[in-house]
Specification:
Two copies of one chain form a homodimer. Chain A is built from eleven helices and 13 strands. Helices cover about 40% and strands about 25% of the residues of chain A. Chain A folds into two domains: about 5-125 and about 310-325, Nucleotidyltransferase, domain 5 (2-Layer Sandwich); about 135-305, Nucleotidyltransferase, domain 5 (2-Layer Sandwich). Chain A is globular, with a radius of gyration of 20 Å. Chain A has a five-stranded mixed β-sheet with strand order 3-2-1-4-8, sandwiched between helices. Chain A is of the alpha/beta class and about 325 residues long. In chain A, helix 1 packs across helix 2 (about 100-110) and helix 7 (about 225-235) crosses helix 8. Chain A has helices at about 40-65, 100-110, 115-130, 190, 195-205, 210-215, 225-235, 235-260, 275-290, 295-300, 310-325; strands at about 5-10, 15-20, 30-35, 70-75, 80, 85-90, 95-100, 110-115, 135-140, 145-150, 155, 265-270, 300-305. Chains A and B meet through helix 8 and helix 10 of A and helix 8 and helix 10 of B.
């Protein structure tokens, strides 16, 4: 049946994913992903995205005998001017002062909204994923960086300037590890993908025994969070230790969130959730130690349900939510 | 002129304060305070409060040629069941499973609401104090413990179970100082009144030179946060160091709040704000280092404007806010 669709675009540090989401809700269809072109101008990436979108529409409209796209939501990392629709600075992408919302709108001939990528992923999980039905939902996104979002009574909370839930740069150890942001002891300095790898590497350099070194043929610089996970799955004791420590540190960060926001649920989004109980058991145990009893009892800590498409679904959802506010 | 008033009751670990607040807003009148009776049953304290209330009403109604009290808001520390109106556990008061809202309502013959004391203080600052006009306001209360509150669009945010903004037990150094809650590195373990004193004492025991020791006739156990403040005012270098360190650590906590909630303002409530620039300058400087630039720029960090009565005014305001929701 032909219907209304919203395009979701999820721009990340390494990949961009697009997909069409039914305006009445549902999973993303015609999902297309591709690697980001390192250092590419935003206008070049917008052309790529427009091409992916046309492929996606062709596939979806063929399967549904027609259809219509009513708008586009764009999720992007970095420092954004939400009201102005522009990327002020996205260091990982090399984009500065890019009017991304209007570029996308012009390229596709559709109304567009721009939103922070982690906000989109959180909203996607609230709208169609693991966060459905929760009044106060917090999302924590784990990847190259650590971010998040807050959905209150079904509305993305934006604070004073659209820069809420920057959990990666909350301090959990003010005398601790140096962070890429220049400070010491940020959550991200311990538990982002690259820092999980860095901590694993440091232990090996200090003499820890592990199958990890063999997995990367002795090239410790080649260790990633994924390598650590693979060693863990193969029963490596040291990789397990690194994961448990990561989980406990994430537990400190999640306990802080719970003590501040007293949410109904915290949904954890990102590849590291594949570690399952290896992650969630020590994480929940640390939260039980540190969170206020009544708040801990009220809060579920759950993995996201849309591992590949939370950002796409959420970006589309944010477009609809903004469009309905504008009515 | 005779008018409608709301009684505000602010129960603290050491004092209880009552006052009448005009229902249309304004400062508290007929304010009465007294020391809490150590270990007293709640019913005994309720009798004391009822007596203070009668004195307060007599004074205010005489001055205004009559008047009417329409209800009572009660602020209380500890673990509260807000919906049920009861104190589940207030360790500092020795109260467990006390139906405080109904005790107070019966004693005064007035409808009553119960709310967390730090929530009340924050709401009071939003309604009549330094937080007026801010859409997203966070209060941080500094005293024997550290707490806070969150007001969003004029409504006290309560989360899933009414236990939001427990800033004192957010972790800023997970390998750090032991906290009374049993964990390590809570903000409160560094920056509450007793812990400011403890840190000052530890430095003296380690050989720091200071006029502080003389101020307490060599009895280091007699040092309090107030003594540290007095030494600071008299130009003591070591007391200044302790205050700057306290301010920086509070800055870490406030930066975390800003990175999570992106508020329009953070209002700091409590006696320690008397330190003025000695507190606020290093605190703001630490926040500038650690908070997300756009969020930091959007946020004012200000002292409360109702040093003695924020809790009383806020408790009365919460009663009115709840009454209007119930209409």
């Amino acid at each position: 049946m032909a219907g209304d669709w919203v395009l979701g675009v999820d721009i990340g540090g390494t990949n961009v994913v697009v997909g069409l989401v039914p305006a009445e809700g549902g999973p993303a269809a015609g999902v297309r992903g591709r690697a980001m072109v390192g250092g590419a101008e935003a206008s070049v990436m917008v052309e790529h995205i427009a091409r992916m979108t046309r492929d996606s529409m062709e596939e979806v409209f063929q399967a549904h005998s027609g259809g219509r796209v009513v708008g586009v939501g764009v999720g992007c990392p970095g420092d954004l001017d939400i009201a102005g629709g522009s990327v002020v600075a996205a260091h990982n992408l090399g984009w500065f002062d890019v009017p991304l919302r209007d570029l996308m709108s012009d390229a596709l001939g559709l109304p567009a909204v721009l939103e922070n990528d982690a906000n989109c992923a959180t909203y996607g999980e609230w709208w169609q994923g693991a966060g459905q039905g929760f009044r106060t939902l917090v999302g924590v996104t784990l990847g190259t960086g650590i971010g998040g979002g807050i959905v209150l009574d079904g509305v993305l909370f934006r604070g004073a300037s659209g820069t809420v839930a920057e959990f990666g740069h909350t301090t959990i150890n003010y005398t601790g590890r140096r962070c890429t942001c220049g400070n010491y002891g940020c959550l991200e300095a311990y538990a982002s993908g690259p820092n999980i790898a860095a901590r694993a590497r440091e232990g090996l350099e200090a003499g820890a025994e592990s199958a990890l070194a063999a997995l990367v043929d002795g090239d410790l610089d080649a260790i990633t969070a994924v390598t650590v996970y693979e060693a863990l799955v193969e029963g490596d004791e040291y990789a397990h230790e690194v994961m448990v420590e990561t989980a406990r540190i994430l537990g400190v960060g999640v306990a802080n969130i719970i003590n501040v926001l007293n949410p109904d649920a915290v949904v954890i989004v990102g590849g590291v959730t594949r570690a399952g109980d290896h992650l969630f058991r020590p994480l929940r145990s640390e939260v039980r130690k540190r969170a206020f009893g009544r708040s801990e009892a009220a809060c579920r800590i759950i993995p996201g349900a849309l591992p590949e498409t939370a950002g796409v679904v959420g970006a589309a959802g944010v477009f609809l939510s903004e469009a309905s506010r504008g009515d």
